[in-house]
């Protein structure tokens, strides 16, 4: 499956025409690399699970880490995350800018399950680049965007860096020149309890602590904590049985390619036609729906290890692992 290599990647000019073109590609479910003050982001509409699955796919060797939802302003951010007083203070002091806030998901939020990797929290930031804020506003919703590089490569700070990795894999790059900050945003979690520094970045710990009037827990001075390590993984309440050939008594089924068709019990199919991008788009929301049905165990049909299947299987194995 090499379809991502058949596309021609357009370089969109900075300015109103480029903004309009980028927004229309996003609204159609396509991917556009967008300049931010930190690094270029690989953007897709955060509310569209197919677009988000395509983001993971375009990066190659994908893993379903939760993504940052980029919003045009604080008012949009408040529709996605629950702001406490500390979040309000940090947003006021540092947005637009290189700070990401991880907040409890707001009721009615639009960021899809896959973009949050199934978590009940959401990472939000208002980027400083005015072109990109214009694109987000014109696209009509938050834009999920990890750094616009292939998995394992360094983050891109020019359109040429983006094209070197993603030419032919995405619809377009919006030309915003070189990024000024060049390192990723600082990530702070405000999920009750002490505020935690999940990733050091463009805003220093000292600046954040000064605004908060309190210390940040998490990465100690000098020690770099990988954000993926601290992000608690979504885990269903039900036990999972992987590589199931059929349903057993009392099990709910998470199917792929119609294997459980006709079986008794509640079954949801990640992709009846066997499409891994569609399966990725449905993964977390279907797991949640089956879990909410109250089954003690969920049987999961075999999923090929190819393409996005690798990331799907990685998440399923984590979800199936015994927890203490
Ligand atoms: O500067 C940046 O932040 C760039 C530009 C494009 O905005 N973006 C970026 O995204 O660095 P990415 O995907 O490479 O890093 C996002 C990090 C992930 O490592 C993830 O663990 C963390 O944010 N994250 C996202 N949502 C989270 C959540 N709900 N809980 C904990 N961590 C979260
Ligand atoms: Mg990155």
Write the layout of secondary structure elements.
Elements: E1 10-12, H1 16-27, E2 32-34, E3 41-45, H2 49-58, E4 68-70, H3 74-80, H4 85-94, E5 99-104, E6 121-125, H5 130-139, E7 143-144, H6 159-166, E8 172-174, E9 186-189, E10 196-199, H7 205-212, E11 217-218, H8 227-230, E12 239-241, E13 251-255, E14 267-269, H9 276-292, E15 297-300, H10 309-320
Parallel strand pairs: 1-8, 2-8, 4-6, 5-9, 10-11, 12-15, 13-14, 13-15
Antiparallel strand pairs: 2-3, 3-7, 4-7, 5-6, 9-10
Bound molecules: threonylcarbamoyladenylate and magnesium ion (MG).
Residues 146-147, 155 line the site of magnesium ion.
Give a description of the structure.
Strands 1-8-2-3-7-4-6-5-9-10-11 form an 11-stranded mixed sheet, sandwiched between helices. Helix 2 packs across helix 9. The chain is an alpha/beta fold and about 325 residues long. The longest helix has 17 residues, at about 275-290. The chain is built from 10 helices and 15 strands. The structure holds threonylcarbamoyladenylate and magnesium ion.
Estimated radius of gyration:
20 Å
Look at the structure and name the CATH superfamily of the largest domain: DHBP synthase
The profile of the biggest β sheet is: 11 strands, mixed
Tell me the count of domains.
Answer: 2
* Beta-strand proportion: 15-25%
Query: Strand arrangement, largest sheet?
Result: 1-8-2-3-7-4-6-5-9-10-11
Q: Ligands bound here?
A: threonylcarbamoyladenylate, magnesium ion
Order of helices and strands: EHEEHEHHEEHEHEEEHEHEEEHEH
C-alpha end-to-end distance: 39 Å
Helix content: 25-40%
- CATH architectural designation of the largest domain: Alpha-Beta Complex
